[in-house]
Amino acid sequence: MGAASDAPAAGAEQKQQQPPKRTLVFTYGTLKRGFSNHPLLQELASSGDASFVGAAVTAWRLPLVCGPYRVPFLLNLPGEGDRVAGELYAVTARGLARLDELEGVSRAHYERLPIAVDLAEGGGARVDSAVAYYAHRDYAGDLWRRSGGKGYPEYSHAVADGYVRRKDRPQGQSFLEQIRIFVSSQS
Fold it and tell me: Which of 17, 77, 92, 131 has its CA 20 to 30 A from that of 62?
């Protein structure tokens, strides 16, 4: 009988084994496998802060366009564009903070908003609880107009041709200034 009292309570044992809460993040651009920012997701995976769930496509049509330096932007304009192909990851709070930093959420570059996606595997199961990084609402409409109402169903290597990494872009302008210049210029 004494041995039973030495064992931890069942509730305490379950609490210790519970994995951290994860957010499902839909990636559609440079965070995808084979693209320039994917090493961040690999780093997060190696620390246990991200895991690949599977290939996915947006449940609804949304525009995917390229801005300055071929930077990809998903626009929160449901019904426009195409169903966009990408990848779904499960990310911890620590991983999400790192992604928010990369995407400039606090600087109004992108905003993290809900998205519904269909998984490619498993009969196309719908996931309604994911998030994605959309172009910030302050300039999303301008990017759509600049694109002439034409987007892409996927940020492929052909679409990304000409992409310039952040460290290789002109350093005298902020990202928001680069976007303003881009949307005001002629194609």
Answer: 92
> Left, alpha or beta for 96 (phi > 0: left; psi -120 to 50: alpha)?
alpha
Least Cα distance to 42 among 95, 111, 84 occurs for 95
Angle between helices 137-146 and 175-184 (to 10 degrees): 30
103 is catalytic: yes
Place of tokens 């994917």: 38
Instruction: Please provide the DSSP assignment of the chain as one string.
Output: -HHHHHSPPHHHHHHHHPPPP-EEEEE-STTSTTSTTHHHHHHHHHTTSEEEEEEEEESS-B-EEE-GGG-EEE---TTSSBPPEEEEEEE-HHHHHHHHHHTTGGGTSEEEEEEEEEESSTTT-EEEEEEEEEEPHHHHHHHHHHTTT---SS--HHHHTT---GGGS-TTS-HHHHHHHHHHS--
pLDDT digits (tens, 9 = 90+) for 51-93: 999 999 999 999 999 999 999 999 999 999 999 999 999 999 9
Domains of the chain and any CATH numbers: 18-184 (3.10.490.10)
pTM attached to this predicted model: 0.87
Place of tokens 């409409």: 141
Q: One of 87, 103, 111, 154 is an active-site residue; which one? A: 103
